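Chapter review: from sequence to fold.
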Amino acid sequence: MKIVVAFVSGLVFALGLGRSGMLLPGKVLGFLDVAGRWDPALLFVMGPAAGLTMAAWLWRKGRPTPWGGEIPRRSLHALDARLFLGAGLFGIGWGLTGVCPGPAVSNLAAPSAFTLTALGAMIAGILLSLLPLFQRRGPGH
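The token string follows.
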């Protein structure tokens, strides 16, 4: 049953991305170009999504989750240079290509050289971020 729910959730997400125009890099780049020919249409997609996510987070905070455990009351992660570097690189990649991970995966339904290149760059970035997990920590660890 969990697989069916996950599949349907992913399908609804992909259809929403397509319907909203988030699968079109030109549309995303137009939204990000606030100093030029700004296209505010995606504000009507991202605004409600951010608001609903924040409301759901506040409502669920401290309550048990369906998969066990609970939503933490505060962040468990430090705000460090690695976090800011990763967020900056993500933003630069998004700003240059107009593609983020969700739309990149959804665009695999009709892949193009551009989509495959963008997704390959994302996967390379993910693998680079995982390198510290595979490095030896020294003797005795």
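Two observations follow directly from the output. DSSP finds six helices and no strands in the chain. The CA atoms of residues 50 and 140 lie 45 Å apart.
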